[in-house]
UniProtKB/TrEMBL annotation:
Residues 12-117 form the Inositol polyphosphate-related phosphatase domain. PANTHER family: INOSITOL 5-PHOSPHATASE. Gene3D superfamilies: Endonuclease/exonuclease/phosphatase. This is Inositol polyphosphate-related phosphatase domain-containing protein. GO terms for biological process: phosphatidylinositol dephosphorylation. One of its GO terms (molecular function) is phosphatidylinositol-4,5-bisphosphate 5-phosphatase activity. It comes from Streblomastix strix.
Amino acid sequence: MVDHAALLPAIQQVVEKKQVDVVTISIPSSNKHDYCFFMGDLNLGMWMEMQRKDIERGLLCEKLERLLSFNELNKERHMRRSFSEFEEMRVTLGPTYRYNVEIHVFDTSHKMQLPAW
């Protein structure tokens, strides 16, 4: 078993920079280990093509599969540019952060951050 952690830059518009960062991170070959965990704040945002109101509506209607299809990490994996050797379990819950503190409302600060997993 091997584990690895990283923090990638939080620049939502620069997916290409994150791809380079991921490539330069020394990720052990997954075929040499039974289990390989990669954890961290990857700052791979959600749904650059979607409007915030559509994201929130999708979450309220529990349309997780559709929303996950717009997830940058999933797109990168499917295009085999980053993390293509990794498998992710089926996601069955909504995002767990980007809420206002202590209430069940998405970020209403001046940042207006999008919900993410």
